[in-house]
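for the writeup, i need someone to sanity check this before i put it in the appendix. the sequnce is what the collaborator sent (i think, or maybe the updated version? ugh). structure was predicted straight from it, no edits. if anything looks off just tell me and ill rerun, i have time this weekend
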Amino acid sequence: MKATQNPTTAVQVTPADLLRMAALYLRRHGWHQGTYYAPTTDTLTPPACAAGAIGIACAGYRVEHFSQLDGDTLADYLATLAAFVDYLDDFHPMFLVDEDGYLLDEHTSPYSWNDDPTRTAEQVVTALESAADEWDRLHIQGGENR
């Protein structure tokens, strides 16, 4: 390598990193319920729900639907959302049951969880940060990915 060449500095971004970025986004720009983003056209960084904030963390811009993401970004989004769902299943389960008592979904929906009328912005931010900590606990050993 010549002195003028820069070594590559590829850093792997983990779901934990993206969950923390989503939490930071919500702290800075606000939290929203009902849709991915608050209906506004005057800002590129509107208040977002948990899934919307994860989308922005992954893509770097407002994403109306995950189908708008390219392959690598979509993989990051789905992995990060799955890590969040795993955390919610373990620590904040909220399952939908039909009128006959049958379970409609085996996993906690991050959308229903976010949109619960009793939910607060601080609960969502804390859950995203805690999900990141849990992902790190399960996947990182001695500073290295397992």
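The radius of gyration is 17 Å. The longest strand covers residues 140-141.
thx in advance!!
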